[in-house]
Amino acid sequence: MKRPTIADIARRAGVTKSTVSFALNDRPGVSAATRDRILAIAREMGWQPSRAARALSGGRAGVLGLVVDRPARTLGIEPFFVQLIAGIESELAARDVALLLQMVEDRGAQPATYRRWWAERRVDGVFLVDLRLEDERVGLLAELGLPAVVVGGPEGCGGLPAVWNDEAEAVRAVVEYLAALGHRRIARVTGPPELRHTAARGTAFAAAAGALGVTTVEAATDYTGEEGARATRRLLAASAPPTAIVYDNDVMALAGLAVAAEMGVPVPGRLSVVAWDDSVLCRLVHPPLTAVGLDISSYGAEVARRLLDLVAGRPVESGCHAMPVLTPRGSTGPVPSGTVDAKPV
Asked: Is the Cβ–Cβ distance between 247 and 256 less than 8 Å?
């Protein structure tokens, strides 16, 4: 079916294309009666403005962009991004703004994507996720003048506005909770170490453990269940295995729970498990997972509102959105009496 054009509307209305353009863009020079007739014909024919044409003529594209540097096969099963995108979309849909999602598996492809979007006027602004310790994207977006809001922070954002969550305080709460249960050997299965939020959690983890006299070990992964399972096997096969493991996402925590069962390590009898990103998955397994949770959809909506304000030319400040909350469930418990690391609670 052929899409209706301004020329089609002009022929139907018996006017020039310029008259139709003026009417559709609410510009002067067209009588009220003619404007109403043209608008009625446009609605009847199902005409919609071209976002690309509007952007090329100096207007806004009506599109915001999100580039995710993760394997496409993992995005659909990682609850954090699913909920974040849902929150973003809830805000954009109400404003008739589209979201352009680009998956890349090569870190170098991200700058090229931003440059192409900027040159083609494809997007009005972008969400910057997975901020890295050395992140060239921050300087590039500032150089291009492409509006951007960082989903994370506050460090390493340059002059870009950012929205973050107080994960350091949440990490301390987890370590203090496990220490109160008697755990003295706690492991953490992390995401990629080059990500700023991974490093921030690691700093808070080491500081909290040091203050409580807890021994720690960290195993870096790529957030996938496969890597989380391999890291768990290595930790549990060690000569002095941990009595508790904290995972940086719930996909890896679920994989770790399965490995513990495979290796005959009862949870929470001999091993306590804590997940990050408290999705519904944490409540559907047995035992249900103790988890650090946050209203991620609300977080997505908040960053969307700030980027929309930035695109509209309104002042936007950086700020903390919330502190994730620890919810104890059946996957954590006291260290069994007789265990070397047990501490009276």
From this structure: yes
Per DSSP, 62 falls in state S
Choose which CATH entry (3.40.50.2300, 3.40.720.10, 3.30.70.2860, 1.10.260.40) describes domain 6-48: 1.10.260.40
Peptide bond into 288 cis (omega under 30): no
Residue 318 to residue 306: CA distance in whole angstroms:
9
- Give 167-293's CATH code, choosing from 1.10.2020.10, 3.40.50.2300, 3.30.56.10, 1.10.1780.10: 3.40.50.2300
Both structure tokens of 82 = 């699913």
Residue pair 66/304 in contact by the 8 Å Cβ criterion: no
Per-residue model confidence (pLDDT) at position 199: 95
Q: Are strands 325-327 and 290-293 parallel, antiparallel or unpaired?
A: antiparallel
Residues with Cβ within 8 Å of 255's Cβ and at least 6 positions away in sequence, in order, are 225, 226, 228, 229, 232
Instruction: From residue 68, give the alpha-carbon distance in Å to each of 74, 81, 92, 314.
Output: 11, 9, 18, 26
Q: What is the DSSP string of 3-30?
A: PP-HHHHHHHHTS-HHHHHHHHTT-SSS
Quick: pLDDT tens for 250-296: 999 999 999 999 999 999 999 999 999 899 999 999 999 999 999 99
> Residue 73's pLDDT is what?
67
Reported as a single tens digit per residue, the pLDDT across 214-251 is 999 999 999 999 999 999 999 999 999 999 999 999 99
Average pLDDT, rounded, for the chain: 90
> Beta strand pairing status for 63-68 and 325-327?
unpaired
Cα gap 98→268, rounded to integer Å: 45
User: What would the two tokens of residue 99 be?
Assistant: 């979201």
What phi and psi values does residue 321 have, to the nearest 5 degrees? -80, -50
The model carries a pTM of 0.81
